[in-house]
Amino acid sequence: MPETSIEAVREHLETLYHAESGRILATLIRLLGDFDRAEDAMQDAFTAALEKWPQDGIPANPRAWLVSTGRNRAIDALRRRGRFDAAQDKLVQELEARSPEDPSEDHTGLYDDSLRLIFTCCHPALAQEARVALTLREVCGLKTEEIARAFLTTTPALAQRIVRAKAKIRDARIPYQVPSPEELPERLATVLQVVYLVFNEGYSASSGSSLTRADLSGEAIRLGRLLLELLPEPEVIGLLALMLLQESRRAARSTPEGELILLEAQDRSLWDREGIAEGIALVERSLRTQRFGPYTLQAAIAAVHAEAPDTAATDWPQIVALYTALYQMEPSPVVELNRAVAIAMRDGPESGVAHIDTILSRGDLTDYHLAHSVRADLLRRLGQHREAHESYTRALALTQQEPERRFLEKRLQQLDQKDHDE
Length: 422
Known about the structure:
The chain is mainly α and 422 residues long. The chain has helices spanning 6-32, 35-56, 62-82, 86-98, 113-121, 128-138, 144-150, 155-171, 184-203, 214-230, 234-247, 273-289, 294-307, 316-329, 333-347, 349-361, 369-381, 385-398, 402-421.
């Protein structure tokens, strides 16, 4: 193979790590049977690639090379320890016996390694918070500090949560496999919740300089498709529909410079019509079963938006009705807030403000920046600039995302300019 400059190799590996490390790690966990051992093996493999590829050239199948190298190095390390520890030697024999001839084989469909990993991370033996944190860390590759910010906790506390979850999997000998058909339904709800949380982190990043992370939402949609293949239940269909419909707006949600664009101002010609068509077809398929749940109702709301040519022509009465049904099925302050926005669009800003004030007066969502941002926007439309300024300021203090911060600062500047002009 031809020599390649170390700069080119380094750049290629960075791209590969960003795009493929989740799948590589999932396969190594399957082959090595241990999270920590697999993580060490993956790091060893990337280090080896940086050493060898400049001289040997980049292999035809880099992911296969990394998986094979990581596995072989991990087993070699265990074999060296086995000279002095019979237990390690026995483990080597077990790993070699269970491994396929081609460890880099691309497992797709029902037995995708990522799918095995997500069911393991979402095992009922783990606490719910641990399931989500472990999936975001091991399946999606989020950094511990990123997950800690999403959970509003400290990085050391989140790291301990992940360590305890791994120890529980190891000590309880939780199998690294897709559950049996009999076990799948009860395991599915948690998995769907985790997949949607991953999608949301990609669709609207909880913090940082970027509004979205296409890699995360793309991974969540890929996992959603695999779940649908494995278990075509109405809520699996509904979740995939919801993700596709929301993802269809990605190109219109921000400027080329990364600035936030609200739904009402988006250029709808940029919406992905192919994704919308697939999403709507899935919504209709789930609704026909009459066994649908919250994901399908949320997808139905997204479908109403997708079918409207603009904000004014949107069927707001239907959206209010769907949010009412969703609230009855799954009451939460966030659903109530979204319903208040729809009511404001149907009946006017005053109605929306009244509903939001009711939510906030109960003490719900007082630290949720979107509640204050939405309230501020409705007050701005009503011409109540002082109250709007207070709510925008409160939202600005709570948001952790840079594009949202810039958007709110711009709104405050516009209010100040209006007051100055008047």
